[in-house]
Design brief:
alpha+beta, five-stranded antiparallel sheet, 5 strands, 18% strand, globular, binds adenosine monophosphate, binds zinc ion
Length: 136
C-alpha cells in the first residue's frame, strides 16, 4: 500500500522520476540526491512502511539480500574501497524521510566522510545493567 503525500512512495512507484539503478515488483534502488559519497544509493520498498519495525519480515529479508547484491555491483563498477550500509529509524536516529530505506554508501580512501560514533566507556556494572534490562 502506498501512503498519500509520501515522497518515497511516489519515487518507488515511478510517479516521481528518479535515477533508478534497479527495480523489481517490490523495490526500487535510486541514487540519493544528497549523496554522502559518489554512488550513494537508497533501497526503497514500493509498499509504504514507516521504518524497520513496520516492514514485514519477508520484505526485511529481501531488502538486505538486495543490499548485498547492490553493494557487490556498485563496488565492482565504481571501484570503491569499502562500503557502509546505514538504516535509520526515528528522528533521534537521523531518519528524515518516514519511509523505510537502506542507504548504500560506497567508501573511498580519504573520502573525508564520517559515519562513526564516539565510543563510550561504560563500567562493567553499566554493561551488566543494559544486559539485564534487555534480557529480562
Ligand atoms: P534518512 O536521513 O535516513 O531519512 O535519509 C533520507 C535520504 O533521502 C537522504 O540521504 C536524502 O539525501 C535522500 N533524499 C531525500 N529526498 C530525496 C529525493 N527526492 N531523491 C533522492 N534522494 C532523496
Ligand atoms: Zn511511503
Amino acid at each position: 500500500m502506498k501512503k498519500d503525500d509520501c515522497i518515497f512512495c511516489k519515487i518507488a512507484n515511478g510517479e516521481i522520476p528518479s535515477r533508478t539503478l534497479y527495480e523489481d515488483e517490490s523495490f526500487r534502488v535510486i541514487l540519493d540526491l544528497g549523496p554522502a559519497t559518489r554512488g550513494h544509493a537508497l533501497i526503497l520498498p514500493k509498499d509504504h512502511a514507516d521504518n524497520l519495525y513496520e516492514l514485514p519480515e519477508e520484505k526485511v529479508a529481501s531488502a538486505f539480500v538486495l543490499a548485498k547484491k547492490m553493494a557487490q555491483l556498485i563496488s565492482k563498477k565504481l571501484a570503491c574501497d569499502g562500503f557502509n550500509l546505514v538504516q535509520n529509524n526515528g528522528e533521534a536516529a537521523g531518519q528524515t524521510v518516514s519511509h523505510f530505506h537502506v542507504h548504500l554508501i560506497p567508501r573511498y580512501k580519504d573520502d573525508g566522510q564520517k559515519i562513526n560514533w564516539v565510543p563510550g566507556e561504560p563500567s562493567a556494572e553499566e554493561l551488566d545493567g543494559v544486559l539485564e534490562q534487555i534480557l529480562r
